[in-house]
Fold these 3 entries.
Entry 1:
Amino acid sequence: MRDVSSALHALGRWAYRARILVVLVWVGILAVLFTIAGLVGTGTNNTYAFPGTESQDALDALARTFPQFSGTSAQLIAVAPDGGDVTDDDFESAVEDAITAIEAIPQVSGVSSPYDGGSSADIASDASAVLVTIQLSVGAVDVLPSTSDALQSEGATLQGDLPDGSQVAVGGSLYSQVNPGIGLSELTSILIALVVLIVTFGSLVAAGMPITTALVGVGASVAVVLTATRWLTITSTAPLLAVMLGLAVGVDYSLFIVSRHQDQVKRGMPPAESAPRAVATAGSAVMFAATTVIIALLGLSVARIPFLTVTGLSAALAVATAALVALTLTPALLSFAGWHVVPKRYRPGHEAPAQETKESEAPEDHDAEQTGTGEADAEAQPTATGEADAAADARPGGFFGYWVRGAIRWPPVTVVLITAVLALAAMPAVNLRLALPDSGSLPEGAPGRVTYDLIAEHFGAGANGPLILTGSVIQSTDPVDLVDDIAAEVADVQGVAAVPLATPNETGDTAVIQVIPDGAPDSEQTEQLVHRLRAMHDAFLEDYAVDLSVTGYTALGVDISERLGGALLPFGLLVVGLSLVLLAMVFRSIVVPITAALGYVLSIGAAFGLTSLVFVDGVLAGPLNVESVGSVTSFMPIIVMGVLFGLAMDYEVFLVSRMREDYLKHGEPRPAIERGFHASARVVTAAGIIMFTVFSGFILNGEASMQPIAFGLATGVAIDAFIVRMTLTPAVLAWFGRHAWWFPAGLDRVLPRFDVEGEGLAREDELADWPEPGDAFAIVGEGVAVRHEPRLVDLDVRVPAGEALVVAGATPEERRAVLLAFTGRRPIVDGRLKCVGLVLPVRARSVRARSAVVEVGPSPDPIAAVVDAAAAGPELLAVDGVDLLADAAARDELLEVLTGAARGAERRTGHPLTVLVSCERASTADAVLPHGIGRTVLEPAASARPARQAATTGTTT
């Protein structure tokens, strides 16, 4: 991961210099993507399919055997005026005329008249309303706008033909979903985010950059999602979630980079140097944060629900695009801004007041070498007593200084209090009910919502969500009587209000029984009825030899809610386990990842609890513009869990990395918490406020499927950022003190490392001109200590390029360890070391690529192995154990091979070959090293001082 910082630095430098090209490329990408989306995209499709569920399998079978049920449907309800009767001749005649007109509308395959038969369940019990069911021949996505408009038009015509005071509405499944758009509340949230950025940066130019990059990223990702509607079934939730996430993370990712750049420029660093460094440092954290969010969103596929998987992919695309735009377009915009990214007092020719300069530098004063990853408490000591004392005296002040000191003043009290409050907030989550969105959650006044409310008023809440029982009756000689017998038994089941339809199909092989529940479609009563009917499956099979399935949109909602509810635990374990591993890699600590994971659990629990209070119990539903209460969208919990996980890890990394950095520099737990908090709290606060603002904008929008998701994310972000990360985490770290940074040596060896703050780049910059500018050393080291070799410490070496290094003395294992360390294959844990001009262990991967190692002992043909290694053109060629070549002829052959490789190296590869050999006695090397080249002998001295095995820079990448 340390090479990532270098790659990001190069990317930032290129984007800064090629600013016009970068802007033109992104403008061109947007133009092409929007053009393709307009030409290819077919629009979103709010059709939910859940393969593998009983209801979906039954619906699929019904579509084949009972084509009348394969298309979508609509409903027309006509309500008589007060005191009127829908069975009056004039009323009935007007309704029948409307039915005749509706039958002539294209794509309408059938219309049921409530007046057919002696008694009809489609006439209200008090004769106050009639219900007309309209069956269409195609699915909802294929219904032409003209068909939908024609149905509404016939409803309006009927309204005019009925007596004054009558009411007509056309709704049903066809009108149960609306395509949400971007409204005033979302635009207002963007303006609020801009104000927050202006306050944070103190510069309108700097504040506009995160907004610009976020909009570009959102535009690109949404265009791709809309294009994909040509081939995939994508619900309207997917692009809306992409917009919401893209705006939130897009602003934050660019904010982190611009903030780091602005701090560096304030300290006098030229913008051309600062922008690439900001991309390399803050950009590394952006990549880490984006990766965690993307992994969590891709993890939505564990539910095995196609539309949810596609939704997760769409959101992951938005996050990935936001990160890419932040890493490329942001440095280009910074190039255009130049020194205008900071207020005038920080620009050349304007000297900032001394106090301001001191304050601006304080948060960034953490560029020390970091050399602790295991027993950090044992070795994270001040580099000098005076330095530590000065650091201890430099306690941060201001708002954030008081905040963190208040949080860690009595750590046990803070931890217990926050845990208790969040646990209390999470308690209502046990009442969280899941359901698919239906017409009852539409905004008031929408045709589907008006129809839904009128049906519930006059026919009962269950009439809006009928269940369908279907099964094969092909074995029956009298399918009509058989279906009637089953319907009669179903009508007596507790929770059944009516059985208005029971019939076999035209071929007499499939039965359909429509059941009207007593409760609303999303009620617990209806859910219990679904289970009760399914529990009767074996009885129906035994008594009637009919394999009945319970299906319909309502049953489908029950199935999907149960599947998603069952997926929450494995998904939660996945993200919590992932957080433990990722944070252990980053912070080399046990306390930090456990605290982060448990804090995430508290945040998500509190978010679910508050969501339940609003959307199930109705608390503050009015002010928040919540149209319907009682349940939340089935996929809300798993989406909120995935997104909040990534954001929580984001805040954890930005806050705790500075605390750890300061601790490793000064070795003082509490002051490190204070200074680290002060260094990052301003940016994290701005990021949290922006996230909260953007998500809140989608609450007031009133779109039913997105409201609970947006509310859960808004409350979750606020709780996680300001309560868990900025208050609970410092308190826990202060409570554990030095033990917070303990890490088992075994895990330290096994787990790879992430450089999320560009520490490696800082180390490279520190040693850029060491030992002197333009030096010609192939290997130069000072005070080097090799990992897991307690006697290999304080190694000083300088080997000019093209010469030889002889490692002698010590043990064979120690000599091999030195060669492996100098070729990037064994980490160093102390000191300074550069090989072929690259800093180790920061650039270990690159050093390995430019070097080769041959071990004489285990090799069956060491001479051939050296020939092969030399042929690859390395800059460093190490041969371990040359004294194992007891045969003089073999030594002469090795001498010939090394001499030829050294002579032709610069001609073939453009750089000289530096040879490293190890042997017990230095004189042994004379027989194998080319004549005439200089040689340096390194004999590691035994030392009682143990090597520092817990260095953060001691890693092989």
Entry 2:
Amino acid sequence: MFYDHQQIEKKWQKYWEENQTYKTSNNTDKPKFYVLDMFPYPSGAGLHVGHPLGYIASDIYARYKRHQGFNVLHPVGYDSFGLPAEQYAIQTGQHPAITTEQNINRYEEQLRKIGFSFDWSREVRTSDASYYKWTQWIFIQLYHSWYNKNTDKAESIETLIKHFEEKGTEGLNANQNDELNFTSEEWKNASDLDKEDILLNYRLAYRAETTVNWCPALGTVLANDEVKDGKSERGGFPVFQKKMMQWSMRISAYSERLLQGLNTLDWPQPLKDSQEYWIGKSQGAQVQFQVEGHDEIVEVFTTRPDTIFGATFMVLAPENPLVETITTDAQKAEVDTYIEETSKKTERDRMSDVKNVSGAFTGSYAINPFSGEKMPIYISDYVLMGYGTGAVMAVPAHDERDHRFAKKFNLEIKKVVETEEDVQEKSFDSKDSVCVNSDFLNGLSYNDAKTKIIAEIETKGIGHGTTNYRQRDAIFSRQRYWGEPVPIYYKDGMPYTLPTSALPLELPEVEKYLPTEDGDPPLGNAKEFAWDEANQKVVATDLIDDKTIFPLELSTMPGWAGSSWYFLRYMDPNDEETFVKKELADYWGQVDLYIGGSEHATGHLLYSRFWNMFLKDRGYISHDEPFQKLINQGMILGMSAFVYRIDGTNQYVSKNLANQYQTQQIHVDVSLLKGTSDELDTEAFKAWRPDYADAEFILEDGKYITDREVEKMSKSKYNVVNPDDICEEYGADGLRLYEMFLGPLEQSKPWNTQGLSGVYGFLKKFWNLYFNGDVFEVSDEEPTKAEYKVLHTLIKKVVYDIENFSFNTSVSSFMIAVNELQKLKCNKRNILEPLAVIISPYAPHICEELWSLSGHDTSVEFEKFPALNEDYLIEDEIEYPVSVNGKMKFKISLSAQLSAKEVEDLVISNEKMQQILEGKTPKKIIVVPHRIVNIVI
């Protein structure tokens, strides 16, 4: 019977939509299972075949859990705020909302074609006001919270105010920007404005001057992961370090909890490692150094206080405020030039560039508090203001980077850890040796020396032992239009939150999406964007009088805001009273399976863990971590095609002749190749782009052969394969099976469209098991033991594979089972109906059709997954090879139930064995049950 995949898939996609087959209930006594894909950003290019890989895996697992009787939450939505739509708006004037809507419609059409079992009724979009109302609400809760180190959690700012009223800062143990000291009387006597200023020092969402990645061309601040080699990832525009007043999130308060929480998660180890490195916990000491001729002190954090006698110079971050104060007139020009150069590098570039050494001398000296020696103070880009104190004591004998710096600037290198190596030539960094040239530390091991020097530092009153974290607070404002407005207005220069009743604070209309002429963010172009405090509503901007009508915050939230809590909104996206009801959050709990790319390790995955912990602290939810199990899917790679253009001409030479010319390799669209070959359709190439219209070709054997290479699949490399085309030709079930069949989920693998024919052939064989010619024919006859064995072997394998996410080996097992059933000419209902259930998570359309043809009027989706009966796997007979003196002589079939002694007796009495023995008695008989018989004579 002809397998018409197009008609079948359209029919069942329509059925699922009309019957809301995958709509999930919140009211059920079933156990829950929450399966989630990382939030997609709806780009203009739509999906290519690489995108659905993780979605197919999560969909198989969701369908499998439904078969097991779970109430499965498997939602979909869109992380729909983003820079690409805004850049398009700047170029074309089209509102980002229109672009985003068009892109989402395209995504949804493609996703539906692949047959995903999403609960579409729960769809959320971060750019919908009904959604970002709650993102703004969470921001307000963060603003009105502080982190109490004594209780180790976030608390309402009211408890902090109460502490100030009763004790001032006495006994306060809080995460803060600066250490403040005041009495309860001083607090009570402070003006309202001063009180607000003090509270900003403690709030979890706060405003402070921060060094940021400023991109003038994009008119916005960029996150570290949006900058590459000093340029914006989008557009390649120059990026500079700049100090700006910015909103920040106090994620640093959660560093230890974020670190410890990793131990409870079933995540890939490399992902855990990258979060651990990003958080960067280190233990050491905070030490103060006097600056000669100045009142200022330089405070450093060091993990190796035991090497302080070897500290021969100091290095400050170029942006350290002390630099301006201590730089001498003679050194000012050199220092200023160096600071200007450093501003062009991002923090990430500075951290990763370990080979190049640069710096400038300030002209000033610090005094080593233990050796009493003068230490020249330099600035260098390898010291970061955000880590530690923005200053390091340099111990060149025992730190590789300090050593390179000392060699470049001819600074003293002093050995203080015992080693045979020549520290003048190479640094020696070890914790296994003892201290030398270190006065009272001489002869002490690392741990003993560290304990003793910290005690001395504390006795001298110049510092203390401490734990430090590399992780800095997360910048939370972007100077762009397409993002969530920050629900803040300014009164006397101080920020205040809007009342929650005023939410959502909606994005205003603007005439243009660029910063204003005064350099304000794009929201500064809005005509209706001011806060009327008396009437509690947004009014025209020209009414601002700073008496009753005040300016609103003009920055918007970063891209990660909406994705930091979306997994909670799916629990009830239509709730207008709260972001999620606690009883629903308690029912659905953590995401049980989260699938997405490893590139989100130190962005989205850290921020969402932070927000989740905060919401738990404040009593809104009960679970510590958002995502219990996480899998990073690999990448599907594209097979790029290249042509060779002869330099200075519009002539293109075929691949195997290219070495005879000076050429440039150019990507061409893979759709310009003939069929599945490497031959270029030269006429199509000439029509592709105007600059190729008059192209000339140097052919080999009358053909132009392109070069091919496996690369990341991307629009810029013209190697994208559209899943719509695959669904058209091979069906969505074919696409789903093939993507799983390519290899292990976590690995990257190259796409090859030719490979689909094998999977499509399997689907046709599977289909035809149920037909006799063109007639659907399934028999009610009882299956044979051989048929049951095929089925139950498959059940055992598929259950193991799905639960271990080995989806590729399941597809192989389907093929083996169908081939064996075809050989057995099996058409028994008791085999073929369970078979349709087993394969349905992978290929749902064809299985729905076969289930329906088998006489069922309900979806296959909620049928119980077939139970394994091990009895069918027990062998009745075993064919034993019989080996004599190490050589296999014959085989004998015996009952599988026989004991080793019974097998031995039957083999010895066998006619063939008697001929071999010729009356001799065997020296040794070894029976390996169900495997082999070895006889030595």
Entry 3:
Amino acid sequence: MVVGGKNNSTKRKGKKSGKPQQRQARATEAAGSDFRGAGFAGSNVLGYGTMTANTYVQQYAPVPTALDALPPPPVGFTGREDDLAYILGVLDPDRTGEGPAVAVLSGWGGVGKTTLAYATGHAAQRRGWFTGVLLVDLHGYDPRPAQAEEALEALLRSLGVPHEHLPPPGAGREALYRSQLNVRQEKGERLLVVADNASAIAQVQPLVPPGHHGMLVTSRHRLTGLGRMRTVNRLQPEDAVALLDAALKNNDPDDPRVGEDPEAAERLASACGYLPLALQITAALLAQDPGQPLSERADALGGTEGILDGLDDGERSLRTMFDQSLERLTPQEQDLFRLLALNPGPNISTPAAAVLADQPQPATERLLGRLAASHLIERTPTVRGRWQMHDLLRAYAHEQATAAMDRGRAPRRRYDQAHDRLIHHYIQHAQAASTHLAPPGGPVPARFTDRDQALEWFDAERENLMATAHTTPQAALHLSSALGSYLKWRRHLQDHVVVNALALDACTRLNDTRNKATVWNNLGGALLEFRRFEDAVHALETARDLYQQTGNTQREATAWNNLGGALQELRRFDDALHALETARDLYQQTGDTNGVADAWNNLGTALQELRRFDVALHALETARDLYQQTGDTHGEATAWNNLGNSYGDLGRFDDALHAHQAARDLHQQTGDTHGEATAWNNLGGALKKLRRFDDALHALETARGLHQQNGNAHGEAGAWNNLGNAYGALRRFDDALHALETARDLHQQNGNAHGEATAWNDLGNALAGLRRFDDALHAHQTARDLHQQTGDTHGEAIAWNNIGTAYRGLGRVDEAVVAGKQAVAMLAAERDWFYTGEAWGELATTLTAAGADTAQVREAWEQSAQAYTQAGADEEAAASREHANSTETVEAQLPAVADLPERDVASESG
């Protein structure tokens, strides 16, 4: 309702109070205004007669004014500090810069624009910036919005102009409004005009005050050209909870519900979309039922009850407010708003919206822009050309779309066709983009120019594609194949599992036996990447058996290859070797060179785990060469990375450094940040072995940062572990302690017992460096037990060696000797001659500390030298022989540490 009276054309007579006194002066002929009979040489006479002029002089009696129209500050106003500061900066009389002191607050219905305007008005008055406030409600979204002339009438009445003295609608009324404000400015007054709930510029433009007065405008539309724009957004979660609490306590100061159940309060605020109006309505409903727990109300809003039904307290309704906004749109805009509800994901691109609307893209973009100007949708803040809708507006759009479809068979068919067009659009584009991530040699559609553009499209559409996979069984089948490489590339591993599980369910529902083996294979690969190894083995064995039944040799090879990777992770290395050799042979039978390269690559990593380093090196060099032949840059990068680890196992650290640098550079070329992080991590290990510690720290910190950026907690844990070892080598034991504790905690969170065991072992070394031998002993014993649980004999042997070192630090030399002998026996059985040499050296040092005779000590050093010689570590062998020939006490060596190299597993999707 407009504040102040409406114009009344009926004139009241006979009332002297406040009535202007009119004097009428008639012009006479004697005044020289009669030109009859006159002649004018050289001129054109246009007319003749008597001219009469009427002049009115108005003298008003004093009339009360209404300059304190601002309502009290609302209850629970919170969370608008930045908005408030911005608007006050516009209204500040001492502000710098030109332009009127006009701020336009826009945002969708219920977001709190009016509340913010009132709060700003009060804040400005407290600062002494205004001597009064004029308030007018323009009812912009009512069936009959207020016109500018009506608003001017209300404002003039508030300024003290009597109703009967108002000029008629038009320029005269606006001129009087401006002159009234100018007079007040001359008297040193400054007024703030608040024009609330405007829907069009024409409603507001005549109300803009002249001079140094200020103005606030609120609207659900972006009304450009009036003043400084400010979009009012929903509250932050913590502010929404604070508003809910304040609103409840306004009804009952002792209402304890928010404080007693903050988690439910957060859920309830989220269900309300952090929208102030929705929160106020919810608080009113809760006040009507003081015994209702917040959790019950949150469940109701998030459950079967329509959320908009639950946001209606009988006096205020979110749905009604949305109805008002929708009714202000053109039919074309309304139609597009309803159609947008058919998009399964959280946002939509302009091209996809054009497909949905079955309209040219430029026309669709114009409609989208007008919807955004009405705040029914909004541009996504991060990517241009994309649009999103608040959850509550999305629920409203779904209601509107459903209502439209219920009008008859033709509207339903139209909406179904629009939905089908959109699904087809997403599937076609995903399939085209996926070809840019496949090994080279296959056809590549022209829809995307290169891999970078394909990845950019995938990144923007991932959530929509995942939502689309849930829509129909056919969509799930198509997208499980099209998304696989991308989801692995970007390490969206849970999505990878989900989309393949949906595809498997689709095969069952469609009775699709032809695709079932492929889906099982892809699901197994996804589970392998997700580190659910037992489930991966089951899936891949199922795929292998189905391929065997259908005689599909090439796909059977793929299943064997992926199965080998899963078996490695379960440390079933002999079984893995058999699976990978089978895969290699089947690939060779079918002439699949890229598949042969994958199998050789994975064979190399399995042979490394079996400590058959020379054979592993041959396998990995073969894989690298085959990848180079096929032009598979990504595969070549993985082979170089694994080759670097193999060189490191053989003590060829310069070669390892070169290999990891090659892997890093190739991964950077292909934009694979996961592979790049792996290469940086292994590069750090090689640099540490070369005692280039500063470079090693840089490499490992880079790896950690990339793993964090990619959300790869497993890789991040490995990088923290290796950072800890690098700090330990620099004798920065406090830093090492922090890094290794972080690694241990991450491994525990990830459920990676093997990684946790390694971190405990290296943590013990850092604690020993700090001479905290009791803590070190506990850490090494924990590592030993975990390695025993996982069946990692090699890791257990290293833990035994370090247990001996900790016992020696505690002076428990007899126990140290027993532990040292256990370590050398186990490491020799593992044929790890380098670590065997190190363990014999540790045992020799312990025997010396135990006071053993010289012959025993010399024999231990000789055993150390022999082991180092077998490992090809000539420098270390020479040092052990020198110790054997010396009678001096040898300083204890640094205990054995276990870096965590990362290997790249080559796997394929069907």
